[in-house]
Amino acid sequence: MFAITTLVAVSFSVGGAVLDADLSAALLWLILFFTSMAGLSRAFVQEEEAGTVTALRLAARPDAVFIGKYLFNVTLLFSLDVLVVPLFWVLLQQTVALPLSFLAVVLLGTAGLAGASTMVAAIVAKAGARGPLMTVLAFPVLLPLLLGAISSTRTCFVGDKAIAADLLFLFCYNGVALTASLLLFPYVWDE
Amino acid sequence: MFWQILLGIWMTAVILASFLYMPATQGLGQTGRIIVYHVPAAWLAVLAYLISMLNAVGYLRRGELRLDRQARINAELGTVFCLVATVTGAIWSRAAWGWYWNWDPRQTSIAVLLLIYTAYFVLRSAVSDQARRARLSAVYSVLAFLTVPFLVFVVPRVYASLHPDLINLEQGSFDMDRKMLVVFLASLAGFTGLYAWMYKLVARLENLLDKLEQQKRGEAESER
Amino acid sequence: MSDELIFVLAVTLITWLGLFLYLLRLELKLKEAERREEI
Asked: Is the overall model pTM greater than 0.90, yes or no?
């Protein structure tokens, strides 16, 4: 998988030297971001192609459809985390000063990734679902999340500042993204 | 016609004033004059996006394609002003901080805005059906807009500890020399007028082209 | 005023006047076309 390849490649080329906290925080989220893009871009495409869209539309309210997809994607990304994060910790020898906070950051950040990406994936599916389209559209929307996650991850590694405000921000991003997605999804879903 | 000529004279005066009447900024010297162009452009780029987003919301609620056209035109104009803002910002950055780009909070925000505009047009070009294109780009426009307040309020807090600059907010009204403030505000008014004029021009042109299309189609049908 | 500054001022002015005259031309052409549409 993409994530593993990248991690291995970086770790190998770094060769045991310890990376600066800024850099490794950024790296972690970069890997998670691109892997999500690869994995989630087709979240809705299967239904479009198989023609089951109409059946789904009849069977469930748009909210339900979105939540369903969202939860599925969250689970998917969480399992990605389970794989990537420990590997990341091992291969890059990253010391984590605030492990609990780090866990929170990872969970909130990943959930945020899933939420916004699910919404964008819905748009992309209706638009023809070409590969780069997902990344181009998702990046500006996800940027605040990524910046927040990278910054708080760095703090978790180094442990030099208070983390509460950053966690609050990540939490709010999730809230806003979900609310907006639930409001906007019907417009994309209903033909 | 009067307003356009007035605008022409106005902006010419602003340009002259920004070099001849206004003093050079402290600390930044002559390059600081660019603030008279940079900030209004950035301001208009954001305003244009806001208006475009509101057009988009209007479209989602009423389904009138006219609103989608308005959204698109505003986005096009917004992109132009955004480019101007980014370039003048880079020039300023080089003078103030040594290099054209260094991810200062404000620079990041304008870059993200540019990215959003780009993504918007990429999305539009990917959809051929008119109604679907309008709907999807409208949804995206709203979704992406949510990032703007986040960047305006959050990024300064997150990055403030790393980067000691960011004088724009204070220099906006309070720290500015009297003369500079006058020129700056005049420029802001001029830019806004320019935007309004450009918008009207494009809108009228497209409406005309539409009418022509319809006429041609009408003639083609009546010939059958 | 240094030479450099005068140069930048000149460039800015010429750019602006160029843009302005172009827009003015567009305006006049549009007016003409719209007038013809009415007929």
From this structure: no
